[in-house]
From TrEMBL:
Protein name, entry field: PTS fructose transporter subunit IIBC
Places the protein is found: Cell inner membrane
PANTHER family named among the record's database cross-references: FRUCTOSE-LIKE PERMEASE, FRUCTOSE-LIKE PTS SYSTEM EIIBC COMPONENT-RELATED
GO terms (BP aspect): phosphoenolpyruvate-dependent sugar phosphotransferase system
Species for this entry: Metabacillus sediminilitoris
Residue stretches spanning the membrane: none
Amino acid sequence: MKIVGITSCPTGIAHTYMAAEKLQKTAEAKGYEIKIETQGARSENILTTQEIEEADVVILAIDKEVDMSRFSGKKIKKVSTAKAIRDADTIIDEAINEIGTYTSKITSDTHTTNNQGIMKNLYNHFMNGVNYMLPFVIAGGILIAISFAFGIDASNPESESYNALAGALSKIGGDTAFALMVPALAAGISISIAGRAGLATGFVAGTLAAAGGSGFLGGMIGGLLAGYITNLFANKVNIKASIAPIYQLIVVPLLAISLTGFIMIFLVEAPVTALLNLLTGFLNGLGETSGIIFGLLIGIMMAADMGGPINKSISTFSIGLMSAGVNAPIAACMAAGMVPPLGLALATILFKNKFTKEEKTSGKSCWVLGSSYITEGAIPFAVADPIRVIPSLMVGSAVTASISMGAGITSMAPHGGIWVMFIPNVINNVPIYLLAIVAGTIVTAVMVGLLKKEVVSNKDEYSTESLQRNGDRTNVI
């Protein structure tokens, strides 16, 4: 039995590779031949045409669109990366036994998906937009932060502390890269819907949103408008082959951009701008109590699925708020996202008798993962014992985020991790920020330690992976 597949998540950092590793090890343990192509930050282990042709089944563990034309005529099992990480054993069995599979009939590069609900499609479109936006946000935000290291006003030519290098960094990061985040978001959404034809329309819609004041909310709406309108003209209208090139080159962008632009200006801009201003005013005016409550919500959502849709929703929302000058939610998000792996790392030290040997080894790597804001490092622990671990992670992250919001901490960088934290002037109150992270880490560790049962400490101790394969748990219930 030969299996090929692709794993791909929106950010391409953790879920992509964790799902690939899980599928690879599980299939090999069953005696199957398998090759998984990872489409993360870059594509690796790329499948050849011959390998795809020789495969008996294709497993796609993806959270964003991929080129389906390569698998035309093949039997396909399609799941999310989270499901592949959580239950690779079942996925492989179902793929082999043709349960929940379908045969791809797509013969050209396409943007469409099969058997997906409207909400799932919308989520994929938004995540594709986020994927396009993130490089601008991360690079722009960090460059702005570095410019602040020269002094908070060092980039201002009229300031006495003006520094030319700081001014250049601010111009590149803030005036250019950061300014393109909303257009890139809209373009990514539009491309997800309409394919490459949606690029220009999406950029125009996003630029109108940014210039008109509707910000990231307008960019999201504009991206959807641009995608569906472009898709209508580009892919749904039958045109004679003799005029098709001119139609696609001139008519489609002209009609799509014009119609999308008119809708954005006359129907979307005013109400969405008012809504964004209302939201911005509310968030900027949060008192200590309100901030703590909002922080609790942020923390719970950040730890609920550790890089999954819920986590991405609140982090994307917080990044979008940065374009409106609201920088406290992103600080809470970044801190809350560090806590799950840090808390589990600490728990493996404080409560050694409650973790398997393999988990204790994984706990060491969680120090690095947590410090680098890779929340997904907690997933193996959550998969092995979700009832006890996930609530502990949510409570710890909620404590951290609520302290951060309650103290009014802001961040100029849309990325977490200790590496960003110590750039001067990025975090407005580093000591309290660190205290919040430490407090959440301790809460998570103690809660996990209290909830988990002791592991069987003899030769029958099972590894996490073998227990998962057998549908068992790591604890003595």
